Amino acid sequence: MLSPSPAPAAERSRWIALVILCTGMLMIILDGTVVNVALPAVQDDLGFTNSSLAWVVNAYLITFGGLLLLAGRLGDLLGRRRVFLAGLVVFTVASALCGLAQSQGVLIGARLLQGVGGALTSSVILGMIITMFPEPREQAKAIGVFSFVASAGASLGLLVGGVLTDALSWHWIFFINLPIGVATALFALRYVADDAGQGLRAGADVPGSVLITAALMLGVFTIVEVEGNGWGSTQTIGLGAVALALLAGFVARQHTARQPLMPLRILRSRNVSGANAIQVLLVAGMFGMFFLGTLYLERVLGYDELEIGLAFLPVSLGIGLLSLGFSEQLIMRVGARPTLLTGLLLVLGGLLLFARVPVDGRYATDVLPSALLFGVGAGMAFPAMMTLAMSAATPQDAGLTSGLVNTTQQVGAALGLSLLATFSATRTEDLVARGATEATALTEGYQLGFTIAAGLVIAAIALAVVVLERVPAPAHDPAREDAAEPAARVLVG
Questions:
Q1: In 144-256, which ranges are E strands?
Q2: Amino acid 119: pLDDT
Q3: Which of 92, 112, 395, 436 could link 431 by a cystine bridge, Cβ 3.0 to 4.6 Å?
Q4: 10-35 CB burial, b ≥16 within 10 A, e <16
């Protein structure tokens, strides 16, 4: 039998490499929501207080969000595959330490290390994807797969976390990463092409690296501490001002550095800067669905962890259907900007419906329609948004641009969590003080949170209309599409 020609074999290898990269991303995304589900069990086992328990999440967020931009640039300089593999090693080892932890200090320390590994791994993935798939139609398809993993992984994590915590113990939410991490690294060595990188001399801006890492870490720390301190507290205002000053120092440094860490020309593109700003608002608003929605199902409707995971399964299915099936066709036919706007409007509709949930809500009539709208909208919005955010990336700075996309996503997540949790809790406390029942007070607090989340998405829509530039849909290339289609089946079996 004749062996396949080199071209089809290389084509298939690229799509296998995409699956490998997305598996690494899925492991990191799942870890975030899996941990959230298991927090009550962790608290009972290790004796965390309510305030100290937050550091199981915050420790990871601070190192993860703070290092993403630097990690992305290191990928450009040292080689993206090398940074990806180094991140997998660090993340997998840290996961083992988390699973073995028998004390609060060990668990929090291991979570800090996990954040470092997560930043190294995830920061370069999108840059590797657009480098591997330069042709517009293939790139749109590949970004759709990545977007599905990045956005649907959060809701899948709720289901996985519930199953592992109920069937085994909270330790296994970390141990499950070991075989995935090892297998992903081994397959990456075989299928993901190595790239030498530009070398540290092409952009080893040490002062800039220190400034941006300190600014992002301090900024994330300030945001995650808002729920305990309040937005108007001396600590929040003071630390926030220092973080902004460090960020301003970084921008000034980039203007004068001979080899800047982040060439500011990247942000001169309205589509790149606009898409990243939109992502901050959209991701912050999305926490209205995942964070407040989870609390509503648990505390008001009495769902357990597994039932919550199943309740959000339609979100994952909607995201998967659009990201893997239709988003690429829409982007190619009408362009990324109209596709993004349509997706944002559907997400807004889902949040507005959720803002009306009653105390005695029923899943089929009060939750499912919101989940479906949200899933379909996110499945359209994320691939289009990431296409725009990476539109000005060159082979020399694709890792940095990818790191920027991941950074704005994490800033949006931290901001949304703090903003929605604070206002929702304040509303609930006021109603309880006035004599309302706990269920009523909780529900109205969540309703306020959903309304604020909808407001954030409205702001994202306004920004998309005003800032984003119209980009013509890429030209149709049937020959290229036919050549890629057999290999693309690797992604869907």
A1: none
A2: 87
A3: 436
A4: ebbbbbbbbebbbbbbbbbbbbbbbb
